[in-house]
Design brief:
About 70% of the residues lie in helices and about 0% in strands. The chain has about 270 residues and is mainly α. Helix 2 packs across helix 7, helix 10 packs antiparallel against helix 13 and helix 16 crosses helix 17. The relative contact order is 0.13.
Length: about 270
Amino acid sequence: MRNQALKVPWRELARACDQLTLWRSFSLWVRASVDAERTLPEWLAAAIENRCPAFLRSRRAGADLSSLWLDLNQWVDFHHFGEAIRDGWIQALHYYWGRQPAADLVWQHWTRMEEEWRVRKPVKYPTFDQWQQQVAAHQTSPAPAQYVEWEAFALWARSLIEAVHETPAVVRAAVEARCPGFESYVKTLRDKPCADAAWHWEQLRVWIERHFFADAIRDASIESLRAAAHRTLRSERIIDYWASQGVAAGSQLPTYEQWLAEADAFVIR
């Protein structure tokens, strides 16, 4: 899946995941309504026709009603994610969508409604827009984007130190600007400058967490924060870029902003 994902810029994959969230939520709204009614009511058929013209007519005669939502998923993939199918990353789209917090919200809401409606059918079913509002009401904090960017900064510093076997001026200046006091902290650990890029990276990562994510350390949620950050598409792409595209010795050293822009644009054709 990772190789498929690398065929497309991560932002494009993220946009596709957002679109897929909406469509999967729609199919689960259809599923919950059909399961509760044990038929396809006219109002629901009209809503499906409005969003997916000709879908219902395209189903084979006598198709099982219980598979309606699955057939709808296939129809949506073909009609709205044709580029992902054509360019060979549709499986990656399904996989990475399933890892998004938004996917959990959609499935959890469907589970709640299925259980409620099994006990008592609603007098009036929610429209899909209302269903979406109910899903959004359970949304918690956004993805830990700040942690991802700080980790990228530490990886950039590591790449440059590995390239020249010392801490170059561009890294010292950037670290001093963003992490004032870090160099003084390092000197308390080692008297002489250290060219060990992995050691320098680890100390920078620890310093960043202590200074910028102190609340997460204090309430013991730092591990969850790291895990959530590493599940994001951007974090995975940055790490792939860092692991496969080292800075060549003797080349002009990129600034953090240049390096991050290249990591964000990284694909494998």
